[in-house]
Amino acid sequence: SMLESERSAAQLVIEEWKRPAHGTQYFAALSASMGAMAVGAAIGYSSPASAAFRYDNTTEVITDNSTFGNLYLSKEARGWFAGSLSIGALLGCMLAGLCINNIGRKGTMLVSVVPLLSGWILIGLAQNLSMLVIGRILCGLCTGISSLVVPTYTTEFASKDIRGALGTGFQLFITVGILYAYIFGWAMDSWRLLTVVCGALGFVFLLMAAFLKESPHYLLSKGKEMQARQSMQYFRGKSYDIQQEMEELKKSLKDSSDVKVTLSDLSTPYILKPLLITLALMVFQQLAGVNAVIYNINIIFQFA
C-alpha cells in the first residue's frame, strides 16, 4: 500500500508538471478585459447622456452661461454626439495595427488609456458640441485600439485548454460596460457626474494593465527569447515545462516569416471565401443598426 501511495503521489506530481496553471492567466485576461469594459461604458454612455441634454428645436447648439451649465442640443447635434465615437474607432483600428508590432501588446493597451481619459475629461468639461464630439472621437480611438489589441493579447498568452473561454472575455466585458453605463445613467440625473463614473473604469484598466506581462509571442518575434521564456513561465506556472510550447511558437513564427504573402494571394478561394464571409458578417451587423440602438436606447424608449 505504501508503494501504491508513492506511485499515486508521483503520478500527481507528473500531472501537475504537465498541466499549466490558470490563475495568472485568469488575472491577465481580467486585467486586459477591463479595457473592454471601459470601452463598453463609453459606448453605452451616449444613451443616458443624450437623453439628459436639454433639447432645443433648432439647428444650432445653445449653451447656458454658467461654467458647468447644461447643454441644449438639437436632434442633429445629439446624433453627432452619439455617432462620433465610431469615427474614432475607425481611426483607432488602423492605429492599433501599427502600435501592437512596435510598442507591444501591453504598451499599446497602456497607450490607449491616454485618448480614453482625455476624451472623458473633454466631455465632462464640455461647453459646446465641438468639445463633446472631440471627446467622443478620443474615446473612440481607445475603442478601436482595444478591439484589436485585447483579443490579440489574450489569445497569445492563453494556454490551449482555456484559450476559447478567455477569448470570449472581450465581447462579454464590452456588454458589461454598456450595462454599467445604463445602470448608473438610470441612477444619476447629471450627465457630467456620469462622465466621472464611466471614466473611472479607464483608471482601473490602467492600474491593472500596468502589472501585466508582455505577450511571449511578441517578445519572441522581437528576438527576446529570454524574456519570452520568462513570460511564458509566468503564465504557465513555475512547475510547468514550457519547452515544447516554446518550440512550437518558434516554429510558428519561422513559418510565418518564411511565407511571403502578396495581394494576389487574396484571389485564392481558400483565402477569399472566408475573408468575404467575415467582411459580410461585419457589414450586415453594422447595417442592421445595432450601434444606433445602443447609442440612443433612452431616446428611443422616450419617443416610443
UniProtKB/TrEMBL annotation:
GO cellular component terms given for this protein: membrane
InterPro entries listed in its UniProt record: MFS_dom, MFS_sugar_transport-like, MFS_trans_sf, MFS_Trehalose_Transporter, Sugar/inositol_transpt, Sugar_transporter_CS
Keywords, in A-Z order: Membrane, Transmembrane, Transmembrane helix
Residue stretches making up the Major facilitator superfamily (MFS) profile domain: 28-304
Statement: the UniProt record of this protein carries the keyword Transmembrane: yes
Molecular function, one GO term: transmembrane transporter activity
Membrane-spanning residues: 26-45, 80-100, 107-127, 133-153, 165-185, 191-212, 275-301
Superkingdom of the source species: Eukaryota
Organism (species): Cherax quadricarinatus (Australian red claw crayfish)
Protein name: Major facilitator superfamily (MFS) profile domain-containing protein
One Pfam family cited in the UniProt record for this chain: Sugar_tr
